[in-house]
Design a protein that fits this description.
12 strands; 2 domains; 55% helix; single chain; alpha+beta; elongated; 413 residues; two-stranded antiparallel sheet
Amino acid sequence: MNPVLTLAWRNIWRNRRRSFLTLSAIGFSCVLLIFMLSWQNGSYETMIQASVSTSTGHLQIQAESYLDEPKIRTTLKDPQRILDQLSQVAGLKSFAPRAEGFALASTDSRSYGISVTAIDPVQEETVTSIKNLVKRGEYFKEDSFNAALIGAKLARNLGVDIGDEIVLLGQGYDGSVAAGFVEVSGIMESGNDEMDRTVAYVPLNWFQDTYSMGERVHRILIQGEELNRIKELQHQVRSVLKNVDNGNKRLVVLSWWEIVPGLLQMIQLDLFSGLIMYALLVFVVAFSILNTFLMAVFERTHEFGILLSLGTTHKRLTVLLFLESLLLTLCGILAGTALGIVLTLYVEGIGIRIPETEAIMRQFGLPDRIFPKLSFLTVTLGPLFVFIITALSALYPAIRVRKLSLVQALRAS
């Protein structure tokens, strides 16, 4: 082994207590960074999946301007051709058409304005988790026609139960009156108050017939195979649809972050505030390293003077001190990274339930347990940041030694 490296290793353990405390600080920061970054990564993925699995999908194909102004006449006029084109795209897991409108939902004694979402019972099941939200009654059958799935709050407001009829009155595609009745086949509990209170799901064929839509739909929801490759999938879908004619409204392919920008902004805000806290933690560790090696320089000044008088160069002493800081940092990072991975993998298997937050979580359609998600980035980002900051903090003591005067060093006690 290199003699300078051996000497640096031995010097680390001359003051075991101080070195152990420094190692502990570095290791703890790595454990905390790996776990918290994985926790954030897992919570963000949970939030995104909760949104895409109940309402948006990873991608959506719409007619231009429909997102900002969801008018019933802004449609996809030839959805079957689009679906045929999508079947050629690699990395695409599933897709399903939807049509939407507004209606006055009425029973014998009550009326409420609601949003009507029409789905294909078979295809929708492959894209979203609506079927799993049905807590009473049953999901649509393949040949369902005038059936409806409604939220528990809407059922309570209308005073209806399984098997009861609701009259829907709205405006059709051609400007005619869209009127018909549906029978409640299932009651859903999504945890999202707005969805449970204002949305009714009906079969696509009933909606197209009642609202005079023909074969038209308003959206096609797409589910990708991998969340981190959605942008690439978006480009592929745009490419295969570029020659599809949709009349005077061109086709657009929107990602989930374009459809629900508020979710992305919330994630970015939370990530930014988290990074500030992590930076403060690392700077505290950096000051610990700085203190350790400043103390080492002060305590060993006389020793350095003797070494200089024996012919050791300032450069050699600087390298020695920097190697000591490097070895100490690497030991702490390796131990902290290993412990952080083990801890995160354990919690990833069982999840964490935050007490007293179930109501809030349900409001956003989230599960009551959050599972951290370990990745290459969450394992390497924190320790790398710790390594860079602590390495930089060790430069100052090393520079002091480089400027050390032989006479002053020998006079030091």
